[in-house]
């Protein structure tokens, strides 16, 4: 029996998909796709960053066309990269990743988190070439290649971070030694049943999908409390936009009370704060435009190529690439991109954003 273990579709412990669907066998298979280069991507931290790192995949595939790509991530982020045709294998950090890294060798290892867990995996893995961040014997993170130094220093110095004008994608492409001209948006692939969930949910709750839908993401995450607009600003946005559009509220478990209040005060539909990641994405997929701060919802909307109105405060507006999908808003303050978890200034950066500008941008993008 001839077995092509170097084939992209080789499963090892079970028949490949093509054999199950069409009965083809290795020795005469027209789907045989030999892999001559194996890439390991290590990206564990920040679910939004995991998703936006998928924007690197087309450029990597273009540079290494005969490659197979394995991705190590945390369990909570796996759903964000599931179904991506450019990812051949997802390894879960909490379960099987370490065993695979100890047993296998890769041609290229990309350690793209300057965090200890990720850097340790990069140093632990066996790779002919490594780029990104490793962990030295004393437990200190270090940049493996020169291009990673810029991001490393920005992670240690808020002033350097504030001065940065490169997008996240550009920085990561440089670390990976891939031309920055290979820019792409993040990628999120929904199965038909997941897309159908969003359609059915909104229709069952009275949304007319023949009319434009605007999603207002009210969340800020747990790390930086000023990623969200004040309640009065959110109310104003809803009241103004609902005259011509259908506005639905987006959020996670932390936004349950806020969204309950906004729904009660404005009549906007609360789409629920306990949806799975894929269900949440299915709902976002039904929106024509999303208004959001620098949160996971923003990256999901970008990956689904929705129009965007984004607002920023403690994190950098320059690192987020909207392409031609939308507009960014932030207060004209020297302390923008401070990366402080909280702020005692009055008024603060979110209170100084002109809500009328956000409303006008949404109306303009929807025409």
What's the gist of this structure?
The protein has 367 residues and is α/β, with parallel strands linked by helices. Helix content is 34%, strand content 17%.
CATH topology of the largest domain: Rossmann fold
What is the CA–CA distance across the termini? Answer: 61 Å
How much strand? 15-25%
The number of distinct β-strands equals 12
Structural class: alpha/beta
Write down the secondary-structure element order: HEHHEHEHEHEEHHHHEHEHEHEHEEH
Verbal overview:
The protein has a 6-stranded mixed β-sheet with strand order 3-2-1-4-5-6. It folds into 2 domains: 35-182, Rossmann fold, CATH 3.40.50; 192-365, 3-Layer(aba) Sandwich (Rossmann fold). With 367 residues, the chain is of the alpha/beta class. Helix 10 (192-204) crosses helix 13 and helix 11 packs parallel to helix 15. The chain starts with 16 loop residues before the first helix and ends with a helix. It has helices spanning 17-22, 47-53, 57-63, 78-81, 97-103, 116-124, 149-156, 158-163, 168-175, 192-204, 231-241, 256-266, 277-284, 296-303, 355-365; strands at 37-42, 67-73, 89-92, 105-111, 126-135, 141-143, 213-217, 246-250, 269-270, 289-292, 307-312, 326-330.
